[in-house]
């Protein structure tokens, strides 16, 4: 940080009440409104931070994606300055709503209350700002998801000549969550990562709830250390132990969403292992836990059967209820509770347990620790960071037996449980709002001191009018074309050529994804190109076939049915293989087709009988993704001794635009994971280097198709 910025920072160490800026704008997470916070019972917890900060601003503006009810909710929030809300009052779809927000914010902040070209404020918002127009504004995202609004608001206000500091705050690794849930190669993951990168690079300060999260963001987006700040989630004042309350023996508590991420099925199976019928013998036999010398390790007897209490709602509730009934465990399902009631459960439970696959800085775990609940968490991103193993809680491997062993230890060793609880509550004091508030304020001070000092933020997404959504396809397409033409004609010829050559690839990917979606997950190229026929027609009935890099086995299934061959597919993606197996089972192909997980560059595939010989090896749009291809082809010939290798690869010389893009220095590949794309001469040279003989070569659909013979 340069000296000018340091000099500009308020001396909050001397006066923590010094004003930070005229206004604070907070954008809530995408799809979230104040009504969402209220219904989840977290409104007052989340607002507590801004209530305390309100003494250092003249006004606060909340940008939410809730409806008209948000105005009434905001009206009742305690604050030392006026609070206003911009909400999705007309229930527009998100792109249409997002397009209106920057100008609405600008007019609300800079125009007299209740006036402006976007219409009056909601009538319920009686606390709209009445202070003079601000000249300095801090904008903060509540989460990374939805941060595009903050970028566009900042740009609009800076255009008006205001000093604007932008804070990108993430309480959890958003793009990683999307990748874990949707798959790392999914368009959803790519879109989340692009949006997260845009926000982090545009921000004056990037705030994360843990150092681990910040380290990840720094590495991924090349952020300087001095532009990042760790501000942990804070604990509410009432999240404290109560020694007058006796913990209920053998009660195991979980609180949170009933969703796949939380892996509650592991907890149910763990509690099943702890049932009175099996716990005693398992403990004595060491299957679950090896007793120590402590005298307080007698296993629970039948009257004290472990009981699981699940507080929360979500899509898996019916499934989890059925699982609990099937395992014959005592399980109580409760809906989301107001925070005081939830904390009361945390003070009464014998063990708090959470087995999530991933978390950010999990507030429910932190609250359980603050209430001195003996705590067990799975060893997973975010969870294991919240607990000091063996000091404030126990960390177990994410499987039922390991979780059961850890829970059993706390249920039976009361001294250990009490010791962990005491230390957890003591350690939690560092997360009280009084301790977190100075860190939060520091982020605001840094943001306004820098106020866009690095560079102008990159342009956000191009916005088109919402009326296009209702237009017919031809009208909408012409509007897009006019827009692109209008932009490109403003560029010098060389820059125009570069832009047009570059924009083709992302447009192609949009079209490709639309084609896949319209086919309900099956790309229409399979039946339009009929490219499976090339493979089916060159394979005999009963031959053994190995499809390397089989994906979700579209080609392999055609070979198994059309050629009546015996096919093995290998792919490294569990998601691809799961989809393939579902289709295999649905089509009754298990006798002819099996798929296995493996890295085709290292792992040697085998048939069901263990034999490594295959009559035919198939490489359909796979070879171009590999390095050192000639070496791999020789290895496949040696490993599998096929008579034929059938190959399909993309042609570099498929059209003139590809060569033109390469000449301009634009990536010409149709897929950025390709290591190469072929001309006929380069393909012939590579196959010759691998010792293969070309028996047939076809050029079709912008691709090369080869039947290659393998020397005996």
List keywords for this structure.
single chain, 712 residues, alpha/beta, Rossmann fold, 27 helices, globular, disordered N terminus
What can you see in these coordinates?
By secondary structure, the chain is α/β, with parallel strands linked by helices. It folds into 4 domains: 229 residues, Glycogen Phosphorylase B (Rossmann fold); 180 residues, Glycogen Phosphorylase B (Rossmann fold); 53 residues, no CATH class; 186 residues, Vaccinia Virus protein VP39 (Rossmann fold, 3-Layer(aba) Sandwich). The chain has 27 helices and 20 strands. Strands 3-2-1-4-5-6-7 form a 7-stranded parallel beta sheet, with helices on both faces. A 7-stranded mixed beta sheet has the order 16-15-14-17-18-20-19, sandwiched between helices. Helix 14 packs across helix 17, helix 20 packs across helix 26 and helix 25 packs across helix 27. The longest helix is centred in the C-terminal third of the chain and has 26 residues. 40% of the residues are buried.
Q: Which CATH class of the largest domain applies here?
A: Alpha Beta
Number of H- or I-type helical stretches: 27
Kindly identify the CATH topology of the largest domain. Answer: Rossmann fold
Strand order of the largest sheet: 3-2-1-4-5-6-7
CATH architecture annotation of the largest domain: 3-Layer(aba) Sandwich
Q: What is the radius of gyration computed over CA atoms, rounded to a whole number of angstroms? A: 30 Å
Helical content class: 40-55%
Structural class: alpha/beta
Counting structural domains, the number is 4
Approximate shape: globular
Assign the CATH superfamily of the largest domain. Answer: Glycogen Phosphorylase B
Approximately what portion of the residues adopt beta-strand conformation?
Answer: 5-15%
User: How far apart, in Å, are the first and last alpha carbons?
Assistant: 68 Å
Overall pLDDT score: 86
- How would you characterize the largest beta sheet? 7 strands, parallel
Query: Are there runs of 5+ residues with pLDDT below 50, and where?
Result: 1-14, 113-129, 277-303
